[in-house]
Design brief:
Helix 1 links the parallel strand 1 and strand 2. The chain is globular, with a radius of gyration of 14 Å. The protein has 6 helices and 4 strands. A 4-stranded mixed beta sheet has the order 2-1-3-4, with helices on both faces. By secondary structure, it is α+β, with helices and mostly antiparallel strands. Helix content is 41%, strand content 17%.
């Protein structure tokens, strides 16, 4: 069986929908609760590299903590290392779910993207 690691929040309906699609596509999931166990800076750096996405795509811009910290205005003045350290310090800042097989990474859940990459 194909295995994936999924950083998620179990009470998030989007994460549950993503997990359902992945399981229906024959994947076994190793789920990590992102709020309790956010990826460390080294892991995040590798996930970002594998994803091919800009670092800002890893921020949960719709989240309460992002807004409370006023990060929309602060991120531009931060280095990538500072941004990664911030993400690794608080799983609520990270867009979810993050799914990886160790070779590729998806961030968030878009059904068409999942069909292209994880089917």
């Amino acid at each position: 069986m194909k295995k994936l690691t999924m950083y998620q929040y179990s009470k998030c309906s989007t994460c549950r929908d993503a997990a359902k699609v992945l399981k229906n596509n024959g994947y076994e999931l190793h789920s990590i609760e992102i709020f309790d166990n956010p990826p460390d800076a080294e892991t995040l750096t590798e996930l970002i590299r594998l994803s091919g996405l800009e670092l800002k795509k890893f921020f949960n811009t719709a989240g309460e903590v992002y807004r409370e910290m006023n990060l929309k205005d602060k991120l531009a003045g931060m280095s990538d290392q500072e941004k990664i350290a911030l993400l690794s310090s608080n799983g609520r800042l990270i867009k979810r779910p993050i799914v990886t097989d160790g070779k590729q990474v998806t961030v968030g859940f878009k059904i068409d993207q999942y069909q292209d990459i994880w089917s």
